[in-house]
Specification:
By secondary structure, this protein is of the alpha/beta class. The protein has 2 domains: about 190 residues, P-loop containing nucleotide triphosphate hydrolases (Rossmann fold), CATH 3.40.50; about 190 residues, Nucleotidyltransferase, domain 5, CATH 3.30.420.280. It is elongated.
Length: about 425
């Protein structure tokens, strides 16, 4: 049996225009904890339950298929449970499908990265399509490629397929999706809706969440505006706010290092090789313990991978002894670096974990998440000050690309910056980083 749900207690008044929208196209943008995705999930489940006499289908799409399980799939399950209807649905993960047993109505989940499979699937009886985290898509043309396919498979019982997009606006005001949603706001068949955690009148944002938001607001107001208010605040020139790099003379007596990490950005003929040694304290703070740095610039005889391998091993061995009770949790390296990684494994049978580069605007946001939390500290070692801090002070966006969809940084003396980004990306889940 389903539960009678008072939707007025589940949907904030700010979202009533979304719930009662008669538009075929609905764009929901907003900051973190605005609950826009929850409203869409409730609406889609309500659609299916309302068609109790006929089969209807819903398509849910993420840019990358491997993000489905922990996002939209769980969100639809949450909405079903809220209606007390879990016993009326069957759920599978290979493939991801959730089916309403009385009618056969089904939620289909796809990744846009498998477009051929998505396009060839003849689902039929479609009433709604949801693009979650729509800012991850490359352009509006990616939507156009699939929308026409779904429109052709409209269910006979509805006048049109309803489309939903949800996303957090990128920082760059000139990002394609920011410009697209601004343009669509003038179209009569589109609803463009903005929200933030401040629109919560039902108490969904807990005191703990509010305290976390307030801490970030105090540490980095622009980052707060971007993440929680959903405002495209722009890039400025400096990538990071250097005042958020906290200098400490030593690891505080009140904090114990529980994990150690090493992160490498390597080069050969002209580019430097650096290795960061970082520690995670039991209170969640991250400490840069020391930095290895070698630059071949101006040197006649460059160090071969075999020499760099030995020096990195010696650096790691020496540093790890500083915290004998803390295991080395992960060694991270750029996935494009094969020579040094292979040499290290041949020499010591230790594998470095490769991390694929992402767009620079994405990579830097993982670091900014850590900085805005006020959880990054560094020790005043010679190399930390000479290389890590100085490189981050000079780390800036290329002004000629600030208005581009994919802005670039000035690629000069940025090796510790890259290594720090690899570390944050590779350990984002453990560190509780978000973007």
């Amino acid at each position: 049996m389903m539960t009678n749900v008072d939707l007025n207690k589940q949907i904030n008044p700010h979202f009533r225009s979304v719930w009662y929208s008669d538009k075929p196209y609905n764009i929901l943008k907003g900051g973190r904890n605005s609950f826009k995705s929850s409203v869409i999930a409730l609406k889609l489940v309500f659609y299916v339950l309302s068609h109790s006499e006929e089969k209807v289908n819903v398509v849910v799409i993420r840019k990358v298929a491997n993000t489905i399980r922990d996002s939209v799939y769980l969100k639809i399950q949450w909405a079903i449970n809220l209606f007390g209807a879990a016993s009326l649905f069957s759920m599978t993960v290979s493939p991801f499908k959730i089916t309403f047993k009385p009618t056969g109505s089904t939620f289909y989940f796809y990744g846009q990265d498998d477009f051929s499979k998505l396009k060839s699937n003849d689902i039929g009886d479609i009433i709604a399509v949801w693009y979650e985290e729509a800012a991850e898509f490359k352009s509006e043309e990616e939507f156009d490629q699939t929308n026409v396919t779904f429109m052709r498979q409209k269910a006979a019982c509805v006048p049109f397929v309803k489309f939903y997009w949800s996303y957090n606006p990128p920082r760059n005001p000139y990002s394609w999706i920011n410009e697209w949603s601004d343009r669509m706001a003038n179209e009569s068949d589109y609803l463009v809706h903005s929200s933030s955690y401040l629109d919560d009148k039902l108490g969904f944002v807990t005191d703990q969440m509010l305290a976390d938001i307030e801490r970030i607001k105090q540490n980095d107001y622009d980052y707060y505006r971007y993440i929680y208010l959903g405002e495209p605040v722009g890039l400025g020139t400096n990538v990071y706010n250097i005042s958020l790099f906290n200098l400490v003379k030593a690891i505080p007596d009140t904090e114990r290092i529980i994990y150690q990490f090493f992160a490498v950005d390597s080069g050969h003929q002209q580019s430097a090789t650096t290795c960061l040694h970082l520690g995670l304290g039991h209170k969640g703070n991250v400490y840069l313990i020391d930095t290895y740095y070698y630059s071949p610039a101006g040197k006649v005889n460059k160090k071969a991978p075999s020499i760099l391998s030995k020096e990195l091993f010696d650096f790691e061995t020496k540093q790890a002894k500083l915290f004998p009770g803390a295991v080395v949790q992960k060694r991270t390296i750029d996935s494009a670096e094969g020579a040094l990684r292979n040499q290290y494994f041949e020499d010591y049978e230790i594998r470095w974990h490769p991390v694929a580069k992402k767009k620079k605007i994405v990579m830097t946001e993982y670091v900014q998440s850590l900085l805005a939390d006020g959880r990054f500290c560094y020790l005043p070692t010679e190399n930390n000050l000479k290389y890590f801090i100085e490189e981050h002070k000079r780390y800036i966006w290329d002004e000629k690309t600030i208005m581009d969809e994919n802005p670039k940084v000035v690629k000069e003396d940025d090796h510790t910056c890259d290594a720090f980004q690899y570390f944050c990306i590779d350990n984002a889940k453990l560190l509780g980083l978000k973007r």
